[in-house]
Amino acid sequence: FSGASSPISLDSDDELDGFGYKEPSDNLILPCEEPMQEEERNDNTEEGNTKQERMRLIKEGKAKMVEEKKRQREENKLMKEAIKAQKAEQKKYAKEKDEWESGKHALRSIVAEIDSTIIETGSVGGTLLTRFAEKGLKYRVQVNPIRGSILWKMEVPQIGQDPASVSEVPYILFVLQAEEFCDLINSGSFWDHVHLVQDRYPTFTVCFVTNKLMNYINKCERAQYRNAPNFNSWKRPPVEEVLCKLATHHVKVHSRQCADEAEVADHIVGLTSSLANCRFRKPLSWLSVHANGAVIPKNFIDKDLAKKDTWMKALIAIPKVQPRFALAIWKKYSTMRSLLKVYMDSTKTVREKELLLQDLKCEDRVGDESRRLGPVCSRRVYRTLMAEDGAVEADAAAE
């Protein structure tokens, strides 16, 4: 047996089974498995790529969402700022409009249109323009429809959406030198001139301002007296008669005699200021006019209130309404509107309204509220405030 070769080798690393089959090694890769592993690797790579792409898309979506939210915040912020600025601008325009409508800028809106002949002839022009410049009032030198006239206009600039507006002031003034005024009277054309102005401006108030009229007349009379033969052609005009007739026979026609150019300029500048402010003043009534002259007793406790409060002064202005009665009414009805609201109530009878104030308590001299106003005072107040004729006397209204 030693010389024969054995079919079984003990030095072999691999062992055969009983059928001569050799067990495959773990590291041995079969040819059919290689494509499968390659496919798995490709699938894993594709899955990884897909996952990365999905993560990238998620990140991009989140970034876009953050950017969109940031953009929306910026837009909302800008929108809020724009709305805030718009509201501030509207508030500014509303405030400015209220100021113009209330007359706060009345002197800035009025413009005097001065006929060029006033500046070119006579000695009034230079002083007049100087006064306008000193007061900061606006004027325009132009050719007016009627020679020697001054007209006024109110010019309101554009405020926000409201366009600029121009309105006429129903007032016309004529500046006449003394010689010119006397010539109009002597020639008989003065009244024709007045009628011409009234026909052209029927709703306007007309004012004739003369400069150095009486000085001129006196000067001519002295010269005529000294040199009578040389002054036979001059005749003294009936200026007093004409001025009186202007006041008595013509409606809304006035006259003003000024001693010199400075007085003429001051009158026109003062008139300009008054015309600018007059349309914004509260209209006068019977009570407001008489309230300014209401007599308030010195021993009246609330004397300061009676002087400052218009409604209180109006109550005191009603005849036979004592200040302590007016104070009792004022405490119950602090404004005229509150009392008139009750008087205008259609559910109450006239008798109830007349006796509305009779039970109000007023203070006596000691300070105790022990006395009533009574029906007489209550009825007088009601009939005075509710009188249909504004010119009726208070005593007649109370009857």
General description of the model:
- It is found in: Nucleus.
- One of its GO terms (molecular function) is hydrolase activity.
- With 399 residues, the chain is α/β, with parallel strands linked by helices.
- The chain folds into 2 domains: 173 residues, Rossmann fold (3-Layer(aba) Sandwich); 113 residues, Crossover junction endonuclease EME1, DNA-binding domain (DNA polymerase, domain 1), CATH 1.10.150.
- The protein has 17 helices and 8 strands.
- The strands form 2 sheets. The protein has a 6-stranded mixed β-sheet with strand order 2-1-3-4-5-6, with helices on both faces. A two-stranded antiparallel sheet has the order 7-8.
- It is flat and about 155 Å long.
- The N terminus is likely disordered.
Number of strands: 8
Helix content: 40-55%
Instruction: Briefly note the CATH topology name of the largest domain.
Output: Rossmann fold
Detail the poorly predicted runs: 1-17
Q: How large is the share of residues in beta strands?
A: 5-15%
Secondary structure tally, helices: 17
Q: Can you give the mean pLDDT?
A: 80
Sheet with the most strands: spatial strand order: 2-1-3-4-5-6
CATH architecture of the largest domain: 3-Layer(aba) Sandwich
Protein structure class? alpha/beta
What's the order of the H and E elements?
HHEHHEEEHHEHHEHHHHHHHEEHH
- Biggest beta sheet summary: 6 strands, mixed
CATH class of the largest domain: Alpha Beta
- Overall domain count: 2
Query: Assembly type of the shown chains?
Result: single chain
Rough outline: flat
